[in-house]
UniProtKB/TrEMBL annotation:
Keywords: DNA-binding, Transcription, Transcription regulation. SUPFAM superfamilies: Class I glutamine amidotransferase-like, Homeodomain-like. This is Helix-turn-helix domain-containing protein. It comes from the Bacteria. One of its GO terms (molecular function) is sequence-specific DNA binding. Residues 190-288 form the HTH araC/xylS-type domain.
Length: 292
């Protein structure tokens, strides 16, 4: 704020259970400004990301839960960075709310917290004073978003320029690698998933998938969607797009050759499907990731 000769808007403090906490097997320590019992009221809580074993990390941070819940109930906003959302969800504050989840953590998050509405296409959610983001460095965009809400667009733009952050990045689709949900225990659905994933160049119809798995179409389509989050058609499309992305990254074949290799005869149709899941055209995807 000093560039506008204005007083500081935020007073940032690190808050912890104890004054000093050793981490990394004692290699370094975190020294906090205040302990939880010293903060009776705050305006904004920023929850950092968790690493490693999420259930274990949640249990180790159990002492923070009541404090976060009580502060939120006293009108504090909660800004959650990346997979810190696992801890936030464990408090119950995300129940029936939307939460941006990193694409690689989506399946595990869904299994642990089925009551939360997962958002994995956009990078930011804003619902009833709770903000989440999907992706480690997406927290920069989330912070700009919160700054804009508190201080206005002009200050957010200034912050984006000072720290060289793309303020308009809204989606994680261009970064996501499709990972089908397989922790559901339905053997028939698993068999269908394995069939589709093992044959990315095949042009399976829904009837063909059902026939090969040995199930009736109507009931199976419903089970497949429930367990994977995708219809059979969408699952086939996602597998083909992922296959095409790998070929585009290698840069050895033309875009049209790759499209035909995925089993599509209609180039425009594939381009639409590709953009639907990546927010990029095949050509733009190649420019971004093929290098050279």
């Amino acid at each position: 704020m000093r560039y506008q000769r204005k007083p500081e808007f935020y007073k940032v403090e690190i808050v912890g259970v104890n004054k000093n906490t050793k981490l990394g097997g004692g290699l370094y320590s975190i020294h906090v400004d205040k302990t939880l019992d010293q903060v009776r009221k705050t305006d904004v809580i920023v929850i950092p990301l968790l690493c490693g074993n999420f259930p274990l990390a949640i249990s180790k941070n159990e002492k923070y839960k009541h404090w976060v819940i009580s502060q939120y109930n006293r009108s504090a906003e909660v800004v959650c960075l990346c997979v810190g959302s696992f801890f936030l969800a464990s408090t119950g504050l995300l129940r029936d709310k939307s939460c941006a989840v990193h694409w690689a953590a989506k399946n595990e998050f869904k299994t642990m917290f089925p009551e939360v509405k997962i958002v994995d296409d956009t990078i930011i959610t804003d619902e009833r004073g709770i903000y989440t983001c999907g992706g480690g460095y997406s927290y920069l965009n989330l912070l700009l978003y919160v700054i804009q809400k508190h201080l206005g667009r002009d200050i957010a733009i200034l912050a984006s320029k000072m720290f060289e952050i793309d303020i308009e990045r809204k989606s994680q689709n261009a970064f996501a690698i499709f990972m089908g949900q397989k922790a559901h225990g339905d053997e028939k659905v698993l068999k269908a998933q394995e069939l589709i994933e093992s044959n990315p160049t095949a042009s399976f119809s829904v009837d063909q998938v059902c026939e090969k798995v040995g199930v009736g179409r109507r009931t199976f389509e419903r089970h497949f969607k429930k367990n994977t989050g995708n219809s059979i058609v969408e699952y086939v499309q996602r597998v083909k797009v992922e296959f095409a992305k790998q070929l585009l990254e290698k840069g050895e074949k033309t875009v049209n050759e790759i499209i035909y290799e995925t089993g599509y005869n209609d180039i425009d149709a594939f381009r639409k499907v590709f953009k639907k899941f990546t927010d990029l055209s095949p050509i733009d995807y190649r420019k971004r990731y093929a290098g050279g």
